[in-house]
Design brief:
Elements: H1 20-48, H2 54-81, E1 84-86, E2 89-90, H3 98-101, H4 124-143, H5 152-176, H6 179-183, H7 191-209, H8 214-218, H9 225-244, H10 252-280, H11 285-299, H12 308-332, H13 334-338, H14 345-363, H15 366-372, H16 386-416, H17 425-430, H18 432-436, H19 452-461, H20 470-473
Antiparallel strand pairs: 1-2
Helix pairs in contact: 1-2, 1-4, 1-9, 2-4, 2-5, 4-5, 4-7, 5-7, 5-16, 7-14, 7-16, 9-10, 9-11, 10-11, 10-12, 11-12, 11-14, 12-14, 14-16
Length: 486
Amino acid sequence: MAASGAYAAKLPAVPEWLNKGDNAWQLTAATFVGIQSMPGLVVLYGSIVKKKWAVNSAFMALYAYASSLLVWVLVGFRMAFGERLLPFWGKAGVALSQGYLVGRASLSATAHGDTPRTEPFYPEATLVLFQFEFAAITLVLLAGSVLGRMNIKAWMAFTPLWLLLSYTVGAFSLWGGGFLYHWGVIDYSGGYVIHLSSGVAGFTAAYWVGPRLKSDRERFSPNNILLMIAGGGLLWMGWAGFNGGAPYAANIAASVAVLNTNVSAATSLLTWTCFDVIFFNKPSVIGAVQGMMTGLVCITPGAGLVQTWAAVIMGVFAGSVPWFTMMILHKKSALLMKVDDTLGVFHTHAVAGLLGGILTGLLATPELVEIEYPVPGVRGAFYGGGARQLGKQLAGAAFVVAWNVVVTTLILLAIGRVLPLRMPDEQLMIGDDAAHGEEAYALWGDGEKFDASRHDAARVGGGLERDGSAEQGHAGMGARGVTIQL
């Protein structure tokens, strides 16, 4: 009996080149990565900051995500994954028409020698969506460096410019068929394109925007640690799509990547926690989330390219090296102390991403690399790649760092000529209410006194006890006049 409906062999909706399994996994992976930003980092940012910055911090992440999508489909995607314009940039173009989006996905600049260009077995629309999620989360991560003081209007102007002028360059150079891709620099899923870029750009932005108020720098405790853990958990679970979707197929590399991702994250979390106990005599929940983050970041450039025992090693380094730079080196460096990187994105993403790129240059196995890279001879130094591969990894990182420092600086200097980059001090004293006219929690007692006359009128209007003064009516409440500092 002939197949019918959606299961027919040849329908406009099911062309011969379409692999339903790959397409389903890629769309699922894209959704996982999207959940990392929305709601993962929105919840994480809204809870890890001081209460008065919860709304502003969450909104910065929300805005970055939404604004990135329109820029991406209008021009950004093809600058990062289209035809070659320059060795580090693709030709700009829209990704909106049916003719373009329903055709087979293709990365036209990735052909290398006798190896044809990369053509996944699903439509271009799937690839556009998946890579958008990567672009968006890069900007959301960058925002973590400037929380608690950046003018929201300046941030709204910054996000599209940085996406077009910085992110697309790194993405094309390393993934889309640019010079670093063809040279053999390994970045499996964004250790350089996403994490090194966001960490360096965030640190640079923090320098130009300026610091938070002194009172905020000295005391910036999370307003909700349980929600912070929930946001971090969404980030961890979503990383299955982050690294599992990088091969553009539901293949062996995807399976290895998802396993290695979880192994590295767990190892790093435990390592960071052990250091906290050893040096501070107690485990820190915030530290555990940071250790989880560095483990996820460190494994990213090599998740589908290294053996699982290597993922354990990378997790140990991820939980120790960034811990050292954040807890020890940071306090001894004048530059690190001067620049107010609110959430320490430089340490958790730039340092961990660079570390992962270097370790991948040592530990990437030739069998797994051959699945993903068309350049012959690409392998870790411990598998015959020698110092040459390690040198390529360092050179690739240097390019990403230099480009992000220069371009981020130029963008912010240009915006600063039109808009103030930093909120004025009087607004910084207030926080969310000054920036948005909204507050995260409608709690009585957050710095305000009890207005007995106003509340007594409400009691009377509601048909409660009418006899006696307002003072007497509220005498039994016990909390009259109490203020709560959050």
